[in-house]
Amino acid sequence: MDEVAVVVAHSERATLRVGDVFLKVDADRTRLERETEAMSLAPVPTPEVLWCKPPVLAVAALPGTTLGRLGGPSTGSPAAWAAAGATIRKLHDAPLPPRPGRAGRDVVALAAELDAECAALVAHGVLPADLVTRNRQVAEAALRPWAPSFTHGDLQIEHVFVDGDEVTGIIDWSEAGRGDALYDLATFTLGHEEHLDDVLAGYGRDIDLDVIHAWWSLRSLLIVRWLSEHGFDPFAPGCEVDVLTSRM
């Protein structure tokens, strides 16, 4: 009998693996609807949807492995990273999906959220004030007008699978929708700056690196407290706090 493995679990949702099937349990029906819709529209490889009966979505496992994880060593050849960049570009060039996604948050509201979170990080002693202040300055470059693209919205390195130098699929589409393409690129390369050039070579478009750096800072500032409160460790080597420190 196959064992049940907990892939990730917190108060909002959980993912279980049973053999070659992943079961995603999410109390928010909208996220499940967004995920299945995005996978049906995305012109890139995605997992096969086996069935969806809210609050559970069942998808088939993808072949291959990820290129690494945040806080861990990266794997794969430069060609594999470039292939990931080319796949991301194909997604961003696709016709826009009907809904805004996580990468498409209003700039004014996002700035207000960032300022409130920075104040909380300092007030609660989570991070030093100078570290927060410097990264808030860096993050400012991300708060600018942008043309909407079809974005994944949570394109962590663990969500892109490759086999050799070929991308076999992208998972976890619950945050997908219209958004800022550079948010996806920054999320994918977070903590793996050494592969940014390979990714951009495959992406094939000139990118404002200051905006990529800004999204690294902005995303990390916004998520440090949430991670700490949900059983994750943003202070682990190579993770979000190290990303923030690198901007100093």
> Helical segment tally?
8
- The CATH homologous superfamily is named Aminoglycoside phosphotransferase (APH), C-terminal lobe
Biggest sheet layout: 5 strands, antiparallel
Which structural class fits the helix and strand makeup?
alpha+beta
Over all CA atoms, what is the radius of gyration? 18 Å
The rounded distance between the terminal residues' Cα atoms is: 51 Å
Q: How many strands?
A: 10
Provide an overview of this structure:
By secondary structure, this protein is of the alpha+beta class. The protein has one domain: Aminoglycoside phosphotransferase (APH), C-terminal lobe (Aminoglycoside 3'-phosphotransferase, Chain: A, domain 2). It contains eight helices and ten strands. The strands form three sheets. A five-stranded antiparallel β-sheet has the order 1-2-3-5-4. It has a three-stranded antiparallel β-sheet with strand order 6-8-9, covered by helices on one side. It has a two-stranded antiparallel sheet with strand order 7-10. The protein starts with a strand and ends with a helix.
Quick summary:
With 248 residues, the chain is an alpha+beta fold.
Task: From the structure above, extract its key features.
single chain; alpha+beta; Aminoglycoside 3'-phosphotransferase, Chain: A, domain 2; 3-stranded antiparallel beta sheet; 41% helix; globular
